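Data deposition worksheet. Section B asks for the primary sequence of the deposited chain exactly as it was used as input, without tags or linkers unless they were present during the calculation. Section C holds the resulting structure in token form. Section D is free text for depositor observations; keep each observation to a single sentence. Incomplete worksheets are returned to the depositor.
Section A, Depositor: J.P.
Section B:
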Amino acid sequence: MQVVGKNTKEFIEILDFGFKVIDAYRLSMADGNFNIVTDGGNFITPAIALPAAFQGYQSIWKDFQKWTPADKQEVYDFVDARFPDLGDDVREELIQETIKEVIGDFELAAKWSFYTKKRPLPTPVRKQLPTTEKLKTVAVKKS
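Section C:
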């Protein structure tokens, strides 16, 4: 990934996470069906990117509105490297929608998490959840 400024780091990490989820979905649906056994591994890379995207997300959107043109250009360059044929208006709209969607998902997860903390997960679910180390090991093997 490119070197980014202080203002844009968290923003680009959220977009990077969103792009990785999109890639995982596209790969998983290439045959027209989703199968957790054969396609679940496609979501390991987004899972690994999630912690970086999650940190500092609360202030990102309002901060973006105050950025300098140079700060915004770093984000545009990141997006253009992956989607070079977007027009300025489409790029701006997709960036805004992606950030709002990801932040909305984080906030919803935080709300559910509040209630989940009050009681443990059922044993079968806990046993199925991979550890962070397991996720990193699988991701390294795939690359």
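Section D:
The helical segments are 9-28, 36-39, 44-54, 60-65, 69-82, 88-116, 123-128, 132-142.
The radius of gyration is 17 Å.
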